[in-house]
Amino acid sequence: MKDTRAALRYAKAILNLSKDSKQESKVYGDMILIAKTIAENKDLDVMLHSPIIKTDDKRKVLNSLFEGKVNSITLGLFHLLEDNKRMDMLEVVAKKYTIIYDHLKHIEVAKVTTAVPLTDAIEKQVMAKVVELTGNQATLENSVNPNILGGFILRVGDVQYDASISNYLNELRKEFDHSDFIPKI
User: Fold this and answer.
1) What's the CA angle centered on 44, arms 42 and 49, to 5 degrees?
2) Dihedral sign, CA of 45, 113, 139, 12?
3) What CATH architecture is 4-104?
4) What is the pLDDT of residues 142-171, one digit of tens each?
5) Helical residues (DSSP H) of 67-164, grouped into ranges
6) Structural domain boundaries in the chain
7) How far is residue 99 CA from its own chain's centroid?
8) Cα gap 174→178, rounded to integer Å
9) What DSSP character marks residue 71?
10) Distinct helix (H) and strand (E) counts, the chain
11) Which residues share a beta bridge with 151?
12) Tell me: the pLDDT tens digits for 74-121?
């Protein structure tokens, strides 16, 4: 991805600044909100990447969109990116911030694949399984794949826990295919 090194530098600088003022978790929430908003709004993404729109106008749009919802440190990031003509990097900076914050706080990303979207009860069970497997807290990313039929597939780092119905059926199929069962006739 273009400019990821520069985005990482901005993210580290914002994290250090927010740690100094003990607001890193608030800024973390801001960065999640910013990344989600840009990812969900194609027009905002196009506006940030447009060379025709002035950086001052881009900052004004961001300020009006996020003012009152985000921390002053995050608003300062908008000014910093405007001054350096790097407004197009905002989404990447926000994502990099969340990654290094998770690493700092020992929070892992758990990718959960289910046949249907997660409910609150299932999410609690999955979080308990994550803590059991890794000993750390995690943020959940849910993807829906109806081919697993039921249950879930959990992946945290290098650890994968497959509790899907399709996995159980495949294991049963393998057991029958490779068994030395000789029927009595």
Assistant:
1) 95
2) negative
3) Orthogonal Bundle (1.10)
4) 888 888 888 888 887 777 878 888 888 888
5) 72-83, 90-104, 120-134
6) 4-104, 108-177
7) 8
8) 6
9) -
10) 8, 4
11) 164
12) 888 988 988 998 889 999 999 999 989 888 887 778 888 888 888 888
